[in-house]
Amino acid sequence: MYLHEHHKPMSTPAVAQLIIGFKNQVGAVAVPPTRERAISIIKDVFISAAERDIYTGDSVIVNIIDKDGVHEERFPLRRD
């Protein structure tokens, strides 16, 4: 996309920070999020999308899969 719009390649260091993740950090370890943190991230993602898209509904249903089975939770996105 950058090449198409600007007619020149993007510099590698600028992109490397976005795509490498923890590989460029000394001693960093990727830690899986807790259940609560994962749900919080999902809520934030859908709330952000709902703010920008008028066709998104008023709530989201999230299916949580864990060792005890599948649990369904409904979260409100906005109140218009």
TrEMBL record:
<dbReference type="GO" id="GO:0000502">
    <property type="term" value="C:proteasome complex"/>
</dbReference>
<keyword id="KW-0647">Proteasome</keyword>
<dbReference type="GO" id="GO:0016787">
    <property type="term" value="F:hydrolase activity"/>
</dbReference>
<keyword id="KW-0378">Hydrolase</keyword>
<protein>
    <submittedName>
        <fullName>Proteasome, subunit beta, putative</fullName>
        <ecNumber>3.4.25.1</ecNumber>
    </submittedName>
</protein>
<dbReference type="InterPro" id="IPR029055">
    <property type="entry name" value="Ntn_hydrolases_N"/>
</dbReference>
